[in-house]
Design goal:
single chain, 406 residues, alpha+beta, Cytochrome p450, five-stranded mixed sheet, 16 strands
């Protein structure tokens, strides 16, 4: 294993909560890949791997790296019992049973059928900004569109969406530079869904919540049954939280990165057929969730060192996406890059089930944005970046926009 000491830079020191590091973590990630491909953080007691092949293989090995204690560093360390139905924090066979339900409801074909609705939401949101010169990409756009989409899927009235979004955001908020305190944060937290479930029991519709109420499946014990109320609550919470957070951050990073690369932005304005590949490059270049964590069920060896059973392993998705062995010139943003499978949505059985929806929303956002506002500049003095052990993205992203000439 390579030495973890660089004479010029000192020892590699990676802290997932360090505010300064979060602003530009990629030089540190490069050092970790080169010098400490297996890294151990003594303060927070976790291991981390940063090379693409290690991150991908670890996600595929769900027997060694369990999700049953959660996929977030703080959760794994707490060893707490998680509510039933939080399928992203389950292992097979229960995960398989639950995920199959979600996979049917979020199939690629069904997601593509949502395009007219998503475009309508996007158009109405952006049209309200016409005539303005200054906007906030987060408050005015990315906090609005994804939540409206998830709300429509679940059957939540639009007037209640702000409450749902605020509740979801509160579960990942933390004091700057500190871990999330899950002692005081509800994991499957949004009691607001109790009301919607009661309403849908009496007023079935064609939304996902109605499907959750009626679907039958074979559970991990071989019993054919319907979802329990607690499972439905967990399903709705996961989808509302993740569905909003993922695309919200993607839209924010799209605005920031394309402002930093105006020549490539002009190419996309001129040729919108390039947008799908640009979305893939945006996902690789600035992933919304930089890390996932797993509980280590048995001793496993990396680079001549043993990670003992009972440890916590962090898989560094953002570092893997910049691995030179997989992506030539990985620190260069290039919308013409030959596509290689990035790790932004994970890999294996825990690949993000909403990835098709996120890609769709990201594409439509850019298509409609360019029609109205082909150019913009970010006000970095007022921008605010948030980074926790589960997300990295913009909370405030002010911009001056230039409308397309009439």
């Amino acid at each position: 294993m390579a030495s973890n000491v660089n004479a010029a830079a000192g020892p590699v020191s990676f802290d997932p909560y360090q505010v300064e590091l979060a602003r530009n973590p990629y030089p540190m990630y490069k050092r970790m890949r080169e010098e400490t491909p297996l890294y151990y953080n003594e303060e927070y007691d976790f291991y981390a791997v940063s090379r693409y092949d290690d991150v991908r293989a670890g996600h595929a090995d769900h027997e060694t790296f369990s999700s049953a204690r959660g996929g977030i560093l703080e959760l794994v360390k707490m060893n707490m019992e998680l509510p039933p139905g939080v399928f992203i924090f389950e292992d097979p066979p229960l995960h398989t049973a639950h995920r199959n339900i979600v996979a049917r409801m979020f199939s690629p074909r069904r997601m593509r059928d949502l395009e007219p609705m998503i475009r309508e939401f996007t158009v109405s949101t952006l049209d309200k900004l016409i005539g303005r010169q200054d906007i906030d990409f987060i408050a005015d756009i990315s906090s609005q569109i994804p939540m409206r989409v998830i709300g429509a899927l679940l059957g939540i009235p639009e007037e209640d969406l702000d409450t749902i979004r605020e509740s979801a955001d509160s579960r990942i908020e933390t004091e700057e530079g500190k871990p999330i305190d899950y002692e005081t944060t509800e994991i499957a937290g949004m009691p607001e869904f109790e009301h919607y479930i009661d309403w849908r029991l009496q007023n079935p519709s064609d939304d996902v919540m109605t499907e959750f109420l009626n679907v039958e499946f074979v559970d991990d014990k071989g019993v054919k049954r319907k979802l329990t109320r607690e499972e439905i609550l967990s399903f709705c919470n996961v989808l509302a939280g993740a569905g909003n957070e993922t695309t919200n951050r993607l839209m924010g990073w799209s605005a920031k990165v394309l402002a930093d690369h105006p020549d490539q932005r002009r190419e996309l304005v001129k040729d919108p057929s390039l947008i799908p590949e640009a979305v893939e490059e945006l996902l690789r270049y600035e992933p919304m969730g930089p890390f996932t964590a797993r509980y280590v069920t048995r001793d496993v060896e990396y680079y001549g060192q043993t990670v003992p059973a009972g440890s916590t392993m962090m898989f560094m998705l953002a570092a893997a996406n910049r691995d030179e062995s997989r992506f030539p010139n990985p620190d260069v943003f290039d919308i013409h890059r030959d596509r290689a499978p990035h790790m932004t949505f994970g890999y294996g059985i825990h690949t993000c089930p909403g990835n098709v929806l996120a890609r769709l929303e990201g594409r439509i956002f850019l298509e409609e944005m360019f029609k109205r506002f082909p150019e913009w500049d970010i006000d970095m003095e007022r921008a605010k970046l948030t980074c926790t052990s589960t997300v990295r993205g913009w909370d405030i992203l002010p911009a001056r926009i230039k409308a397309r000439a009439a």
